[in-house]
């Protein structure tokens, strides 16, 4: 961190905060960290704007004299909402894999035909009487990756490899 081209006298850099002290002639403090909109700055305890420099770093205006510049990375409500949505999505995906892997859905797909729904093997891909693509384990369709560990556990349990 430099104050008008002169290094700060004291710098404390942590994971989500930067604090520096030094003498300034008035001008800007250049912070050699990548600019991102979530950074918040204070100069001598007062909020200060942060601008992006041409090389992608941060610049904060400072008054002349002894200054203390503090930058904090602030996590806002949108960040927490996105993290929550990610957790919900991961739990839902894990739940679907567990349900499919245990065979609760029977490994069968439903497809429209004639006047209603009939059960077909997922590997048939909509063609009655066609065996469609088959996986090496003998199970059909797109769910084969989800049931792969279960298939091999069954084989190992029977002593077949």
In a nutshell, what does this entry contain?
The chain is an alpha+beta fold and 161 residues long. The chain contains 2 helices and 10 strands, in the order E-E-E-E-E-E-E-E-H-E-E-H. It is elongated and about 80 Å long.
Record field, number of beta strands: 10
Poorly predicted tracts of residues: 108-121, 124-132, 135-139
Approximate strand percentage: 35-45%
Helical amount:
10-25%
Mean pLDDT: 74
Largest sheet: 8 strands, antiparallel
Order of helices and strands: EEEEEEEEHEEH
Question: Top keywords for this entry?
Answer:
single chain; 161 residues; alpha+beta; 2 domains; eight-stranded antiparallel β-sheet; 2 helices; 10 strands; 22% helix; elongated
Secondary structure layout:
Blueprint: E1 2-3, E2 6-7, E3 10-13, E4 17-31, E5 39-43, E6 46-48, E7 51-52, E8 58-73, H1 77-102, E9 109-113, E10 116-120, H2 148-157
Antiparallel strand pairs: 1-2, 1-4, 3-4, 4-8, 5-6, 5-8, 7-8, 9-10
Structural features, described:
The structure is a single chain. The protein folds into two domains: 2-73; 76-161, no CATH class. The protein has two helices and ten strands. The protein has helices spanning 77-102, 148-157, and strands at residues 2-3, 6-7, 10-13, 17-31, 39-43, 46-48, 51-52, 58-73, 109-113, 116-120. Strands 1, 2, 3, 4, 5, 6, 7 and 8 form an eight-stranded antiparallel beta sheet that branches. The longest helix has 26 residues, at 77-102.
């Amino acid at each position: 961190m430099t104050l008008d081209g002169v290094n700060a006298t004291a710098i404390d850099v942590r994971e989500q905060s930067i604090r520096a002290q030094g003498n300034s002639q008035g001008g800007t403090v250049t912070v050699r960290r990548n600019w991102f909109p979530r950074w918040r700055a204070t100069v001598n305890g007062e909020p200060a704007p942060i601008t992006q420099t041409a090389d992608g770093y941060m610049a904060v205006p400072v008054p002349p004299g002894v200054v203390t510049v503090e930058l904090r990375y602030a996590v806002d409500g949108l960040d927490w909402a996105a993290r929550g949505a990610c957790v919900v999505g991961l739990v839902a995906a894990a739940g679907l894999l567990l349900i499919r892997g245990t065979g609760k859905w029977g490994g069968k797909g439903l497809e429209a035909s004639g006047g209603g729904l009939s059960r077909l093997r997922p590997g048939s891909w909509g063609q009655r009487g066609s065996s469609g693509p088959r996986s090496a384990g003998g199970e059909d369709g797109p769910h084969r990756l989800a049931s792969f560990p279960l298939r091999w556990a069954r084989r190992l349990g029977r002593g077949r490899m």
